[in-house]
Write a structure and sequence with these properties.
The protein is mainly alpha-helical. It has helices spanning 2-5, 17-24, 28-40, 65-74, 77-102, 105-120, 124-140, 147-168, 176-187, 191-210; strands at 44-47, 51-54. It folds into two domains: 2-59, Orthogonal Bundle (Arc Repressor Mutant, subunit A), CATH 1.10.10; 76-210, Four Helix Bundle (Hemerythrin (Met), subunit A). A two-stranded antiparallel ribbon has the order 1-2. Pfam families: FCD (PF07729), GntR (PF00392).
Amino acid sequence: MAILRGDFPPGSPLPREAELMTHFGVSRTVLREALRTLTSKGLIESRPKVGTRVRARNAWNLLDADMLLWYSRVAPPMQFALKLQEMREMIEPYAAALAAENHEAATLDLLTQAHCSMVRAQNVEEWVRADLQFHLCVLGACSNELLVPLGALIGQTLEGQLQLNAKRADVFNASQAEHTAVFEAIVARDADAARRAMSVLLGVTRARIEG
């Protein structure tokens, strides 16, 4: 997280092993395993006679689940929320269209359950859990296996954003009508309507973030 926060800029060396072991209170074995993990995620690289240095930002694998979670904890909140929102706006409207075209009985049943949970929610916590599940179920209904892990990947960070948006609204379920429009379009297999409805929903989300 210190690297992601910018405490160690790209190209800068990390402290020596002895210093890191003392700072974190770990053994050499544990430290080296941690450094191997950070290497695999693209954060650092080690070279003979050069030592361990932070790699350029374009080498960082921010779509790794650990990396995304760490980054969400240290990035400026508004900056991170807008970047996550941009990602959603690129993916989810078209995912809703795919879900309308390709949903099967099992995936539609899961989406229906998530929508019903949103309707029945009595507080922010219940709403956020159901809201997150609804968006994950939309991705699951696309019949595109590459989108499912993407949803699982951003799940933890998206949950925080959904909770913030629900608390900013006049009532926690203020966007129920927009979610229902997405749901009904998917059920009707109307891809264009599903894409438009999801775009409207995400527009409401962006307005709350920026407001």
